[in-house]
Design a protein that fits this description.
There is one protein chain. The chain is mainly alpha-helical. The chain has a single domain, classed as Orthogonal Bundle (Arc Repressor Mutant, subunit A). Helices cover 49% and strands 8% of the residues. The chain has three helices and two strands; from the N terminus they run E-E-H-H-H. It has a two-stranded antiparallel sheet with strand order 1-2. The longest helix has 13 residues.
């Protein structure tokens, strides 16, 4: 599922960023070399970060 339409980031990519150490939304965007444009996705990126950080297989 797409999370950030402006940059085409999806949930799988957020999971990937978490696996590489991202723990904040800004770090997810930085991981992909982008910055939020419209800002609508930031709260959902935070939500997905929290979800993926809780999962034991991702630590």
């Amino acid at each position: 599922m797409y999370v950030c339409i402006c940059h085409g980031l999806n949930d799988h990519q957020i999971k990937q960023a978490v696996c590489w150490g991202a723990s904040r939304a800004a770090e997810v965007y930085k991981h992909f070399g982008v910055r939020p444009q419209c800002g609508r996705c930031v709260s959902y990126v935070c939500e997905r970060l929290a979800y993926h950080k809780k999962m034991p297989a991702h630590r």
